[in-house]
């Protein structure tokens, strides 16, 4: 049963990921954090539900999930539900070795983190597995709570806070590593240490999916490949970590040696976190420089670039100017840039003020003058 469920989850995770990343990086963050956050309430409800209710839920959930996918498949002919990728080509500045067309360093960091996470999740300095009972519920609720914070902040405030939230989550990993290291000598510290690491894992999960979405934006085929390979790296890493934890747990070594091994895995976890965060910071993923869908090209794009330079427009102002030059309206621009209509109107106002034009027609006349001086 477990093997069958695992195979189905692997398949549907790719489909679910495809749906998430097809709508752009910003929406991917909301999908991931929203799914985790909502499951907080579900996990809490199931923890208090009678056994018959739990059993019925376990039976119905996979069927309901399958029904949702089937309905979505039938709705692909409608624009509102169609899964499409129009976010540009592959990352133009990508360098270094690749595996299956994906940045090798990205996959290695995922593998290392998940291996260390699997080990830390299984192995305590006292040799107690942590995969059952109240402890497992605490870990699940802790992870969901952090994801819910991501979702609420991004919905109510701005996607620009994602970077701050990621650093906060990875700081929890750092704190958990310190507490777990102390737990090597004071066993009661292992429990809060594992909870801190589990909370930080939510941030890692959001970070991985954010980068997956960034790398996947070229096409459906590209997205399926990136998601599948990244998920394989993640699950293989966790499996290797759990196996390592079992081996260390079973072999006859002293507490001191076990603590050293645990500390090494903890710091591998920490290094992987910050290596991945560095990759996030080095790319225009959620910044104003992130790519936006626009068909503007050739002389028209050059004209907007010169116009933006002369008017000293910001990167986001220039993106809005591209759409205005195409003749797009505010609702369309709002949808494509994943911002509110009021935000778009604010950028339009800035464009007019900085350039000295008063309306769209004057803007188009200005661009025409640049194209044909």
Euclidean distance between termini CA atoms: 72 Å
Shape: elongated
Nearest-integer average pLDDT: 77
Percent range for β-strand residues: under 5%
Trace the largest sheet across and list its strands.
1-2
> What's the story with the biggest beta sheet?
2 strands, antiparallel
Number of β-strand runs: 2
Helix-strand blueprint:
Blueprint: H1 2-21, H2 25-48, H3 51-74, E1 98-99, E2 102-103, H4 104-122, H5 133-156, H6 162-183, H7 190-215, H8 220-250, H9 255-281, H10 298-311, H11 315-326, H12 330-337, H13 341-355, H14 360-371
Antiparallel strand pairs: 1-2
Helix pairs in contact: 1-8, 2-5, 2-7, 4-7, 4-8, 4-9, 5-7, 6-7, 6-9, 7-9, 10-11, 10-14, 11-13, 12-13
Can you tell me about this structure?
It is a single chain. The protein has 373 residues and is an all-alpha fold. The chain is 75% helix and 1% strand. A two-stranded antiparallel ribbon has the order 1-2. A hairpin with a 2-residue loop joins β1 and β2 (102-103). α2 runs antiparallel to α5, α4 runs antiparallel to α7 (190-215) and α6 (162-183) runs antiparallel to α9 (255-281). It starts with a helix and ends with a helix.
Write a concise keyword list for the protein shown above.
single chain; about 375 residues; mainly alpha; two-stranded antiparallel sheet; about 75% helix; about 0% strand; elongated
Q: Brief description of this entry?
A:
This protein is an all-alpha fold and 373 residues long. The protein has 14 helices and two strands. The longest helix is centred in the middle third of the chain and has 31 residues, at 220-250.
């Amino acid at each position: 049963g477990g093997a069958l469920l695992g195979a189905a989850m692997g398949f549907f995770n790719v489909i679910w990921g495809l749906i998430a990343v097809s709508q752009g990086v910003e929406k991917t963050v909301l999908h991931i954090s929203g799914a985790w956050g909502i499951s907080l309430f579900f996990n809490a409800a199931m923890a208090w539900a009678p056994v018959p209710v739990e059993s019925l839920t376990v039976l119905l959930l996979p069927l309901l999930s399958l029904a949702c996918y089937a309905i979505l498949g039938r709705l692909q002919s409608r624009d509102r539900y169609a899964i499409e990728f129009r976010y540009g080509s592959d990352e133009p500045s990508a360098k270094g070795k690749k595996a299956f067309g994906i940045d090798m360093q990205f996959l290695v960091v995922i593998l290392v983190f998940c291996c260390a996470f699997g080990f830390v999740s299984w192995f305590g300095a006292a040799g107690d597995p942590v995969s059952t009972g109240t402890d497992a519920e605490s870990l699940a609720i802790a992870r969901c709570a952090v994801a819910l914070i991501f979702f609420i902040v991004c919905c109510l405030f701005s996607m620009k806070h994602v970077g701050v939230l990621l650093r906060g989550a990875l700081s929890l990993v750092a704190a958990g590593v310190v507490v777990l290291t102390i737990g090597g000598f004071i066993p009661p510290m292992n429990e809060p240490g594992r909870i801190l690491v589990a909370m930080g894992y939510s941030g890692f999960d959001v970070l991985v999916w954010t980068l997956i979405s960034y790398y996947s934006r070229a096409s459906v085929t590209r997205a399926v490949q990136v998601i599948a390979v990244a998920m394989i790296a993640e699950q293989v890493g966790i499996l290797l970590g759990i196996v390592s934890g079992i081996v260390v747990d079973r072999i006859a070594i002293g507490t001191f040696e076990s603590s050293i091994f645990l500390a090494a895995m903890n710091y591998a976890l920490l290094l992987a976190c910050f290596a991945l965060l560095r990759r996030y910071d080095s790319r225009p993923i959620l910044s104003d420089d992130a790519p936006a869908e626009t068909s503007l090209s050739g002389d028209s794009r050059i004209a907007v670039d010169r116009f933006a330079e002369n008017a000293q427009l910001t990167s986001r102002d220039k993106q809005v100017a591209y759409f205005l030059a195409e003749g797009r309206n505010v609702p369309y621009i709002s949808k494509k840039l994943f911002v509110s209509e009021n935000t778009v109107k604010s950028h339009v106002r800035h464009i007019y003020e900085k350039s000295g034009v008063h309306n769209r027609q004057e803007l188009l006349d200005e661009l025409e003058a640049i194209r044909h001086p």
